[in-house]
Amino acid sequence: MLRAAIVAILVAMLPSLALAQSCSFTVTNMNFGAVDTLSGSAATSTATLNVTCSGSLPLLLPILVCPHLAAGTGGATSAAARQMLSGANSLDYQIYSDPAMSVVWGSYAWAYASRPPPLMLSPSVLGNSSGTLTLYGRVPGGQATVPPGTYLSTFSGGHVEFRYRTNLLGSNCDTGSGTLAASPTFTINATIAANCLVTTQNIDFGSKGVLDANVDATGQVSVTCTPSTAYTVSLNGGTTGGTPTNRKMSKGAERVTYGLYKDNARTQPWGDAGTPGSTVAGTGTGAAQPLTVYGRVPPQTTPSAGVYTDTVVVTITY
């Protein structure tokens, strides 16, 4: 009779022991810092989820924690792309549960198949336990058309459902079962600064026996700047520091005079800030913008035969 009474008391107490368990959560912010969208490379960052559980009486059953994360305030356009926002502009990113960044961290409550990683805790005899999970974030490359700005997505309220339960009902996080904890708030943020890249194509005037007429040739400066970024392109005076129409190609002490221009008619010299009105201005779109450089060798006294060269420095100011 005594044994039967003890069993009955223990069984009756199990539900109250489960209710005594309480878990709280914190998540650090995920800051991608300055993201270079023109490089084509991905940017990565991490955040840390901390969970602490306690109970007033011993509860030795394992605790399953399911940290569901929906889209965040920036929204999501697909299973692969959550978004941060800067006004009306958006920057794609994603949160993953693995360091290889192959498993998206999701929620039972959103439209996509991905679910959160389960975290199993083993309470002490006093009912206490704790654990951590790492959130892995990536901003993919290939977003050169995103304008400069500070981008943000906030996770709070309905975007965060951190639930916990004893492990009697299975070890997956496919549903919204379990006790709902107070939602922590954390942010995902990144900054895109104005940036420009430049590539060049050389000018080759070819071979000429006697410099008794104009010799024309073209090259190219290709400018890629973040959208809405105003820029100017300057060409310096070359190795000898000439003016836009009086640069010098050299072979030893001998020189060949040439000029660089903004137009096909060779009437608009292309120089630097030292020659007012001689630079080329533009506004970035995120795509490469080719600018033709028109070169001319005017008639002049012909020096000795050989290869004459000069180096012109291209400067992008933005």
TrEMBL record:
UniProt name for this protein: Spore coat U domain-containing protein
PANTHER family, per the entry: PROTEIN U-RELATED
UniProt domain Spore coat protein U/FanG: residue ranges: 15-155, 185-315
Family matches, as PROSITE patterns: PROKAR_LIPOPROTEIN
Keyword hit for rRNA-binding: no
Annotated signal sequence range: 1-20
UniProt entry tagged with the keyword Signal: yes
Keyword list, A-Z: Signal
